[in-house]
Each structure stands twice: as structure tokens, then as C-alpha cells.
Specification:
34% of the residues lie in helices and 26% in strands. By secondary structure, it is an alpha/beta fold. It is globular.
Length: 100
């Protein structure tokens, strides 16, 4: 089973990590897509630890990051630069999707 987490705000970084870790502890895969102001979390201190966890995939909308003036240089290589197509793939592949 895979849990998809669509992050479209920067208001809940602790919830993102907590929910993802809880899902991983139960044996679920986790797929995260960051868009809109959620891309502000790309440099949050909690994300590198989360994205390096086995079972976690993470991508973000480059267009959103540009709009938010987020510097995407130096991101962990596990965080995939993408588009809304990555969001669509996450929705297709996930058994459940939540939005933060």
C-alpha cells in the first residue's frame, strides 16, 4: 500500500513528517508531492531525513518553486524536480491521498 501526501501549503511540516513516519512504520510506501506554497518546505530541516528514508518518494512542481522564488540548487538528489504530471502519477499510484 502507498500513501500519497499532497502538500500545497507550508503550514504543516511536522504533520507531514509525522504522518509519513507513521505510514512507514506500518509498512506503507509514502509518495510526497510539493506544490504552491508547499514548495517553501523544500529547505525545511526535517525534509532531508524524511526523503532519505526507505519507502519515501518525493517530488515537487518546478513552476510552483519558481513562483515562490525557491532556490532548488543543492536539494537532496532524492527530491525529484517535476511538474503536475508527477502529481498525477502520485494520485494514480497511491491507494490513499491526503492533502496538507
Amino acid at each position: 500500500m502507498t500513501l500519497g501526501i499532497l502538500v500545497n501549503t507550508d503550514r504543516h511540516p511536522d504533520h507531514l513528517v509525522g504522518i509519513a513516519r507513521a505510514a512507514l512504520a506500518r509498512g506503507y510506501g509514502v509518495s510526497v508531492f510539493l506544490m504552491d506554497t508547499g514548495t517553501r518546505l523544500l529547505h525545511h530541516a526535517l525534509l532531508p531525513g524524511l526523503v532519505s528514508s526507505p519507502g519515501v518518494k518525493m517530488s515537487y512542481c518546478l513552476q510552483s518553486a519558481k513562483k515562490q522564488e525557491i532556490d532548488t540548487c543543492g536539494l537532496p538528489p532524492e527530491i525529484v524536480e517535476g511538474s503536475q504530471l508527477n502529481n498525477a502519477f502520485m494520485h494514480r499510484e497511491a491507494d490513499r491521498v491526503i492533502v496538507l
